[in-house]
Structures are given as structure tokens and as C-alpha cells.
């Protein structure tokens, strides 16, 4: 579980898609990072986690102060929702905290694992508030990719979806 110490960028997956779609519509697929806030309606401080999330997912790269879509970023931006979910599932599954939770879930016959062990590990490196934010981001992203869910009553991650 050592890889859980690499932090996830806190951005809603929908904001990442909005950024990708905007870049896809630009003639070059590339834009100055500092000019992006106005057309997307964000101040720079709000935009940076979105850019970092897209970068972590391999959907864009930063080159000389400009951000540009990767080939995979172009595919995701152009995809319809079912295809986008399929493309994103593999990308999300490769992120450290999400991968560690998923691996722990797959190792359990019941397909459930407690949140506490992951939270304790994250608290070794982050504040309690940041550790909770990391868990929340992992759950949000994993739900989108249909990788796992979270049962708040039991405080457990759950393989598959809750009914």
C-alpha cells in the first residue's frame, strides 16, 4: 500500500472533461494555461487542480507554459459517455490510491474493505482533513470508472456498486 502516498489532485471528473472538451475545440488543441481561466469561468487557483488531475490521468501535458491534449486526451474528449467511461476506467484504475483500494477489494472474498486502514496510512503523510479529501476524491473517481463504491454506513469500500 505504499503507493497511496502519491496524492490525487482534487477535481471533479466533470471539470476535467470540460477542460478537455474546451481544448479539443481550440484550433491547435493547445492553450496558454494562464489564459484558460476566463473562457472556462475559473480563477487560476481553481483551474490548477483540474489541470493537475488531467495531467495525472495522462490526458494532457504542459509544454512551455501551454497545456495541450495528449492523443488519449483527444480520444476521451471526443468520446460519447459510454465510451468515455470505458476509456477512463483503465486510466483511473492505474492511479495509486485507487489501484491500492481496488487490489485490496479483489483480495477479499466479500469484496469489502474498511476505510480506516487507508485513512491511517494517508494520515502518516497528510493532515486528517487532506487524508479524508484523498479518500473522497478516490471514491468519486472510482465510481465514475465503475471500479468500486463506498458504503458510508459500514465505512467500507465495496467492489461493484451499492444497490
Describe what you observe in this structure:
The chain has 163 residues and is α+β, with helices and mostly antiparallel strands. The chain has helices spanning 13-25, 37-40, 44-56, 71-78, 81-93, 96-107, 115-123, 128-144; strands at 30-32, 60-63, 66-69, 112-114, 149-151, 156-158. The protein has 2 domains: 13-78, Arc Repressor Mutant, subunit A; 88-158. The chain is built from 8 helices and 6 strands. The longest helix has 17 residues, at 128-144. The chain is globular, with a radius of gyration of 17 Å. The model has no long low-confidence stretch (mean pLDDT 90).
Give a short overview:
This protein is of the alpha+beta class and 163 residues long. Helices cover 55% and strands 12% of the residues. The strands form 2 sheets. Strands 1-3-2 form a 3-stranded antiparallel β-sheet.
Chain-wise SSE layout:
Layout: H1 13-25, E1 30-32, H2 37-40, H3 44-56, E2 60-63, E3 66-69, H4 71-78, H5 81-93, H6 96-107, E4 112-114, H7 115-123, H8 128-144, E5 149-151, E6 156-158
Antiparallel strand pairs: 1-3, 2-3, 4-6, 5-6
Amino acid at each position: 500500500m505504499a503507493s497511496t502516498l502519491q496524492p490525487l489532485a482534487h477535481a471533479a471528473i466533470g471539470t476535467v472533461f470540460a477542460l478537455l472538451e474546451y481544448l479539443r475545440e481550440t484550433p491547435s488543441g493547445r492553450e496558454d494555461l494562464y489564459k484558460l481561466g476566463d473562457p472556462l469561468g475559473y480563477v487560476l487557483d481553481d483551474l490548477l487542480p483540474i489541470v493537475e488531475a488531467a495531467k495525472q490521468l495522462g490526458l494532457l501535458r504542459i509544454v512551455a507554459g501551454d497545456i495541450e491534449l495528449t492523443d488519449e486526451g483527444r480520444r476521451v474528449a471526443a468520446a460519447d459517455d459510454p465510451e468515455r467511461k470505458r476509456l477512463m476506467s483503465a486510466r483511473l484504475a492505474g492511479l495509486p490510491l485507487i489501484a491500492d483500494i481496488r487490489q485490496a477489494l479483489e483480495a477479499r472474498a466479500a469484496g469489502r474493505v474498511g476505510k480506516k486502514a487507508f485513512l491511517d496510512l494517508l494520515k502518516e503523510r497528510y493532515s486528517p482533513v487532506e487524508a479524508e479529501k484523498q479518500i473522497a476524491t478516490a471514491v468519486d473517481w472510482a465510481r465514475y470508472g465503475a471500479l468500486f463504491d463506498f458504503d458510508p454506513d459500514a465505512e467500507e469500500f465495496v467492489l461493484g456498486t451499492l444497490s
